[in-house]
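Changelog note: in this version the structure field was regenerated for every chain. One regenerated record is shown below for reference.
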Amino acid sequence: MISIIIPVYNSEKYLATCLDSIFNSTYQDFELILVDDGSTDNSSTICDDYATRDSRCIVIHKPNAGVANARNEGLKRARGEYIAFVDNDDVIHPMMLEILYKAIKSGDYDFSMILYKKVNNDEYLKLIQENFNNSSSKKDVHQRDMIRDMFLGDMNYNVVWNKLYRRNLISGTYFRNTACDDMEWSSRIYLKSNKAVMVEEKLYYWIQHGTNVSLSGFSSDYYIDRMNSYYITYNNFPESEKEYRDWCLERMLKVILITRCNNTGTTSYERTNKLAQDIIAKVKDDFKHSDIDTLQKWSLWLFYKCPVLYNWFIQICSSWIPGNLYKKVKTILRMKS
């Protein structure tokens, strides 16, 4: 059985669509754990209504404490051999659970994963009509691959809602309340993982309507906490895993540059710069002795020492360099946002 955990908070406009996409799955051996995180709209009632209609639906009502805490409550209640997460305002393809389940059962895998797609409003309606079969491309992903791609690759490795985990892999590993709780938690899970399988199909639809769990409430405080999240994650890796630490260090320093740039001219800039200085002081020696690519190392050092230069670089690139060339420049400097 699969335990599907959904943190629910003030999502009355989209919650039913999300839940219907799960109940319409071709794979039906699941329990659905809805953790109502102190919603103040009609979300609580919607949760209770679905629980009344289907005994597989379990509702936990609790005071608001954030997404990480809600997921933890779901993990404590989960009974399934496999665990999946979904956000309360997204949609899954009817075959997503079936494909993830077949993939993880096809070998000695710690988890299976699919790709996600950002969609606008009702764009997913056409996508969920597509049919997939066993001809979908698959590839094995080893620990080194997943950790590298989490920091220097793509977002598919940073999020938790496009994966199916073996319960015994994640049991006892709980989320921490940070701005990047998905990434921080994943770093600890990946350290316990040997091999996963990627099904290269876009079956999870991240709907861009402005109220996503990971999009709502963005503020200067969020971005400042994001820097600290990476520092916490950096310390999750033991010193013996120097390569992993170097990848995280490189990404963390770029997050610092981006955050400082975004907060330039705001009331939060001094606080941003203070935290940046504190983190840099703690990792200065590690950076000096790291094996980060020479180009990355020099660009990081130059942009940190001359924040105005970095701000100019971003403005010039986004304003004057054509889109495709700008993407290539960012790829060379590995400056993903």
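Spot check on this record: DSSP finds 14 helices and nine strands in the chain. The two ends are 37 Å apart (CA to CA).
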